[in-house]
Amino acid sequence: MIGWDMGAALAMANALGVPTVIAAELLPAIEAVMVSKINEQMEAMHGRETG
């Protein structure tokens, strides 16, 4: 899994004008989608190798 820093994510959101409270609420959902998509890509790549 790709590691990321919550402080950096909140700083980026702040730089984009997104209030910290909203960013903190949305980041877990965004992370879940990112992890899901990365897993799908990895399974597709490894499925071709081992299939």
Question: Describe it for me?
Answer:
- The protein contains two helices and no strands.
- The protein has 51 residues and is mainly α.
- 0% of the residues are buried.
- Helix fraction by DSSP (H/I, runs of at least 4): over 70%
Strand percentage lies at under 5%
Number of helical segments?
A: 2
What distance lies between the first and last C-alpha atoms, to the nearest angstrom?
A: 23 Å
Mean pLDDT: 83
Give the total of beta strands: 0
Radius of gyration: 15 Å
Low confidence ranges? none
The main sheet comes to: none
Assign an overall shape. Answer: elongated
Structural class call reads mainly alpha
**SSE series:** HH
